[in-house]
């Protein structure tokens, strides 16, 4: 795994040097251009006996009665317990500038004891925002994210059959009240705040528009004076600004995944002069008791004689090696990999180098 990661890093290094320029639209979020989360409570019908058990999920019966009464069916006092319905929570993201009638994707998740939503149909469900207003309505056939099957003595489940999605299953019914065209100043919020990157964005915008319209407020915010850009509207101004390219500055960081043995590092990671020695001991204890018993028709007792074999084995490792001052982390990992160091041992070595204060980067362990 580590050899693959290192080979990929070395192969992409020349390309990274050439493609270091990034568009501003990939680095920032524009003030006012954001989505909104929607949520609703609905009912999935048409399941093949995999719905909620109404005795364990009484809320399913309540919403089913409400829907039927809304359709003119009086079910007051009736006892019905079908297994083809399931109560679900419906979530969606309302994209910015969504207009009435446009379609959005929705996600459906069971909240009762339903076994699967495969093949079910979501009944018309209002979707509310944080202000309590209905902004969309969802309905359609659920595409479940897994499959489940069971027999008399065994069952098998692959994926998550109690959750699914409905592509384009929501229709926008209300628009967000926001006058974007009336903005005089738009703030750019950096996804990764950094003073150097913010200063470069300010310089790039002012240089591209040939006027001082951008001003860095802090490490995460750059303000743009739309009125001074000499454009027809804020939309025209941002369409020019978002395609300006800059070279972002990144913090030195090393990310390791202990489960897969993956190591990912940035190009700015540096190591101070440090000595590394790695090895291990294996202690093996084996019990092989012997049984001693008298001959037939002889007097005596059976005795168990303990026999213990203890061995200490020195595993081959790395002797004391000194890392020079000018070495980068990629050089160190390449050298360790050439010596055949196991991924787990390599991660432990990097942890020790960081603990010694010689690894100058953020060390993230997942």
Lateral strand order in the biggest sheet: 3-4-5-9-7-6
Low-pLDDT segments, ≥5 res:
1-19
- Cα-based radius of gyration, to the nearest Å: 32 Å
Order of helices and strands: HEEEHEEEEEEEHEEHEEEEEEEEHHEE
User: What is the beta-strand fraction?
Assistant: 35-45%
3D shape = flat
Q: If helices are DSSP runs of H or I spanning 4 or more residues, what is the number of helices?
A: 6
Share of helix, binned:
10-25%
Distance between the termini: 16 Å
- What is the β-strand count? 22
- Alpha-beta content class: alpha+beta
- Average pLDDT taken over every residue: 78
* Largest pleated sheet: 6 strands, antiparallel, barrel
Describe the model:
The chain is of the alpha+beta class. The chain has helices at 2-18, 58-70, 195-209, 234-241, 329-338, 343-355, and strands at 22-23, 28-30, 36-45, 85-94, 103-110, 121-128, 134-141, 143-150, 155-172, 185-190, 214-218, 221-225, 245-246, 253-257, 262-265, 270-271, 274-287, 290-292, 303-305, 308-323, 359-360, 362-365. Strands 3-4-5-9-7-6 form a six-stranded antiparallel beta barrel. A four-stranded antiparallel β-sheet has the order 2-10-12-11, covered by helices on one side. Strands 15-14-22 form a three-stranded mixed β-sheet. Strand 11 (214-218) and strand 12 form a beta hairpin. The longest helix is centred in the first third of the chain and has 17 residues, at 2-18. It is flat. The chain starts with a helix and ends with a strand. Residues 1-19 have low confidence and may be disordered.
């Amino acid at each position: 795994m580590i050899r693959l990661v290192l080979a990929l890093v070395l192969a992409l290094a020349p390309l990274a040097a050439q493609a270091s320029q990034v568009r501003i639209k990939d680095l920032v979020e524009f003030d006012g251009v954001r989505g909104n989360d929607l949520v609703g409570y609905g009912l999935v019908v048409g399941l093949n006996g995999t719905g909620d058990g109404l005795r364990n999920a009484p809320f399913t019966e309540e919403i089913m009665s409400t829907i039927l009464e809304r359709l003119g069916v009086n079910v007051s006092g009736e006892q019905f317990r079908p297994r083809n319905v399931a109560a679900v929570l419906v979530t969606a993201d309302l994209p910015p500038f969504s207009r009435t009638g446009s379609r959005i994707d929705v996600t459906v998740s069971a909240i009762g004891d339903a076994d699967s939503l495969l093949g079910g149909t979501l009944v018309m469900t209002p979707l509310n925002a944080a202000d309590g207003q209905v902004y969309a309505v969802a309905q359609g056939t659920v595409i479940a994210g897994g499959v489940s099957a069971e027999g008399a003595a065994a069952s098998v489940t692959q994926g998550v059959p109690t959750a699914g999605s409905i592509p384009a299953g929501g229709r926008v019914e209300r628009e967000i009240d926001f006058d974007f065209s009336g903005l005089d100043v738009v703030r750019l919020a950096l996804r990764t705040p950094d003073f150097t990157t913010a200063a470069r964005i300010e310089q790039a915008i002012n240089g591209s528009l040939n006027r001082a319209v951008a001003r860095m407020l802090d490490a995460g915010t750059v303000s743009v004076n739309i009125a001074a850009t000499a454009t027809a509207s804020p939309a025209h101004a941002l369409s020019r600004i978002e395609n300006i390219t800059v070279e972002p500055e990144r913090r030195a960081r090393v990310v390791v995944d202990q489960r897969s043995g993956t190591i990912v590092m940035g190009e700015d990671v540096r190591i101070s002069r440090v000595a590394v020695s790695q090895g291990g001991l294996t202690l093996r204890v084996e019990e092989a008791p012997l049984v001693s018993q008298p001959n037939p028709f002889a007097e005596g007792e059976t005795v168990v004689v303990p026999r213990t074999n203890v061995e200490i084995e020195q595993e081959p490792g790395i002797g004391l090696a000194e890392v020079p001052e000018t070495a980068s982390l990629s050089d160190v990992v390449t050298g360790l990999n050439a010596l055949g160091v196991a991924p787990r041992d390599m991660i432990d070595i990097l942890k020790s180098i960081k603990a010694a204060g010689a690894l100058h980067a953020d060390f993230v362990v997942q």
